Amino acid sequence: MNIYVLMKKTFDTEEKIQISGGAIEEEGAEFIINPYDEYAIEEAINLRDEHGGEVTVVTVGDEDSEQQLRTALAMGADQAVLINIEDDVEDGDQYTTSTIISTYLKDKEVDLILAGNVAIDQASGQVGPRVADQLDMPYVTTITEISIDGEEVNIVRDVEGDEEKVQTSLPLLVTCQQGLNEPRYPSLPGIMKAKKKPLEELELDDLDLDEDDVEAKTETTDVFLPPEKEAGKVLEGETDDQVKELVSLLRSEAKVL
Amino acid sequence: MTTFLAFGEARDGELRILSYETIAAAKQIDENAEVVGVVLADQNTESLANEMIQYGADRAVVVEHDNLKEYTSDAYTQAAMAVIEEEDPDGIVMGHTSAGKDLSPRLANKLDSGLVSDITNVDGGEFVRPIYSGKAFEKKTVKDGLTFVTIRPNNIPPLEKDESRSGDVNAIEVDIKDLRTIIKDVVRKASEGVDLSEANIIVAGGRGVKSEEGFEPLYELADELGAAVGASRGACDAGYCDYSLQIGQTGKVVTPDLYIAVGISGAIQHLAGMSNSKVIVAINKDPEANIFNVADYGIVGDLFDVIPKLTEEVKAL
């Protein structure tokens, strides 16, 4: 089975966000694999181990993205593809990314594509479904279970807390939700092996795309931090009095009860 | 005059509140726009369409078909595209719900359009949306294609219902077929109690709740408040509750009017999911807990002492 994983690098979840020059300051920040994409990588490896085939991890990024791709290879993916757009695209959006990915995939033999259901930075959740539509492939979002039997695929997906059981078939794109699996940490032998695994680097030219073909359809006009919160009021006295005061404050001051 | 489609969303035969929020959002984007309510469902579409009109839509378009009983990407795409082709709108507003998140990127792709997802505010022609799980915000515009947005539930208030309003309801016939995904079953886990994403009040528990049984007092308080119950990742990882309740960077991002954090230390990943709530109450026995840094009101104490007393106090209102 030919399995592809769409990966994005994101800020480490512990990072504080700072803004400089109207954009998020990336200098010095730690980057990680988007946590939802880790579920996709883990599931791809498990499905390959069960059904055979190869796992290829694809990312659209810059030369620093190699680090996250090597981590995916160390987890157990077979090969990686870095589509480096650093020199060609200044302000991409989800249209940009999905068009690049689907152009890369359109002449490949693809059985299954896995992606995170959302990236924790831009959090639009658009790229997976856009890629599937561009490849005219069915897709199922926010999956928490998948089993494949021949062409038939049975999936459990999370729908705002409810579980939906879905039947569909390959080829297919799915986006992964928390609960699907527990992503492994790369082992030391895995890390050693990963250094020798193939990592292909492409640019837009190699895909016969130019900048205009992938020009963003949305524009970011401002980036700002939420207003600083004033220090809160810690209540004092006996529990009974604190509780009474809290309810009274919520009614009269905050007006939320 | 511009035309905006405001997509309603039916669940169990009734429209979700965010259906009306899409109408209000369309009016905020362009106050002179003609807002067309859209209802896609397997039955009862005309009465749902009239609800959309009473909440401010100028008229409505419906597609009624057995294949629209449950949301599937293929069936809803066919129905939505038929409506879009008929109306040729300037803009589209949908809820950033499970269905909206699944459907909107595909429609945007078919329409060769930009899409601004998960907006919380309309500021002229610009849309405000949280990024980095609410640690920052950005303003976006669509520069190519339709003015196409999805709105985060519970952020843009609906217009007042006006039962005297009336308008045209146009039913479109669509032959919905060739579905590549089939829903075999739906297991309702979240239907008990209030939906987290739409809740005005949330009572959330963390590791300090200590056990599954420890959540009982939180549910009792939530019942009295008409609130939803949520949890931190710590509580979910420890097995005290289902992951469907998780609030945070992974999990749900919520913005209720009142968020009561119980036994939650306030890790940055949890704050990312709730720090934009209007009013935050923290109840924790550790006075140094980070949650107090974002709380408007705090009680330092044992939650098993505080919560039952709080429930009694609310009951007495």
UniProtKB/TrEMBL annotation, chain A:
Question: Which PROSITE patterns is this protein grouped with?
Answer: ETF_BETA (PS01065)
Required co-factors: AMP
Q: Where is the Electron transfer flavoprotein alpha/beta-subunit N-terminal domain?
A: 21-211
User: Which organism encodes this protein?
Assistant: Alkalibacillus salilacus
Please give the family membership noted in the entry: Belongs to the ETF beta-subunit/FixA family.
Cross-referenced InterPro entries, in alphabetical order? ET-Flavoprotein_bsu_CS (IPR000049), ETF_a/b_N (IPR014730), ETF_b (IPR012255), ETF_beta_N (IPR033948), Rossmann-like_a/b/a_fold (IPR014729)
- Give the protein's recorded name: Electron transfer flavoprotein subunit beta
Subunit details? Heterodimer of an alpha and a beta subunit.
Concerning CDD domains, the annotation shows:
ETF_beta
What are the leading ranks of the lineage?
Answer: Bacteria, Bacillati, Bacillota, Bacilli, Bacillales
Instruction: Give yes or no: UniProt keyword Transport.
Output: yes
SUPFAM superfamilies noted in UniProt? Adenine nucleotide alpha hydrolases-like
Function, as annotated, reads:
The electron transfer flavoprotein serves as a specific electron acceptor for other dehydrogenases. It transfers the electrons to the main respiratory chain via ETF-ubiquinone oxidoreductase (ETF dehydrogenase).
Sequence intervals crossing the membrane: none
What keywords are annotated for this sequence in UniProt?
Electron transport, Transport
Q: Which domain of life is it from?
A: Bacteria
TrEMBL record, chain B:
Q: Where is the Electron transfer flavoprotein alpha/beta-subunit N-terminal domain?
A: 4-186
| Keyword Electron transport in record | yes
Q: Which UniProt keywords apply?
A: Electron transport, FAD, Flavoprotein, Transport
Which Pfam families does the entry mention?
A: ETF, ETF_alpha
Matches recorded under SUPFAM superfamilies? Adenine nucleotide alpha hydrolases-like, DHS-like NAD/FAD-binding domain
Top-rank taxon of the source lineage equals Bacteria
Family affiliation: Belongs to the ETF alpha-subunit/FixB family.
Official protein name in the record: Electron transfer flavoprotein alpha subunit
